[in-house]
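Hallway conversation turned thread

IA: we were arguing at lunch whether anyone had actually written out DUF1109 domain-containing protein end to end. Turns out nobody had. So, for the record, here is the sequence (211 residues) and right after it the structure tokens. Reply here if something looks off.
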Amino acid sequence: MRTDELIAELSRGPWPTVRPARRMAAAMFAGWLIALGGLMLIVGQPLAAVARTGVAPFGLKLGFTLALAIISTLAALAAGRPGQHLGPRLALISLPFLVIAVVAAIELTSVDPAGRQPLLFGTSFRSCLTAVTLSCVPVLAGTMWAYRVLAPTRPTLAGFLAGLSSGAAAAVAYALYCTETTASFLLAAYTPAILIPAVAGALLGPRILRW
């Protein structure tokens, strides 16, 4: 059977969506627990920062990272099914970024230019980049392992989405410790921290997710 015929057959026939979804969820959660455990060993107990930042900033960080993790994971699962239309799912991924960008723009335009740098970079910019990047390693490893039961026809895109979901999941763990309070910091620090594993996933995808 030729490749295009196989893809057509897979897209027409029944597809075992539940098992791959459960496998990926379990692998991501296991990696997330490892990441959280590492943060607990280095930083301490989670949620202690909420007393300093307040509930609203914590809710913004958790909402952004959790929404992105869920949306990108669903898109990654769809990318593993031949014949799926990914346009709407990819567009939905931009929604959390757009919300944060709008809130950040309001913050930045409400202060003098001299006051914008603290809003963007806070006091823990480098710590955020380092913590999220390192925390995503076990999550990305588990996600890539789980993804091998799927059949992505665009492994670079599939790897990017797997990395994006892993980075967002790692950012969820870091959000439990983050002491920053602005959407501008989410835009300037969390976004590149999440995109680093996404780029790594795109580079690894053609090598690991080939079928």
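OS: looked through it. Residues 183-208 form the longest helix (26 residues).
IA: good, adding that to the notes. The chain has a mean pLDDT of 90.
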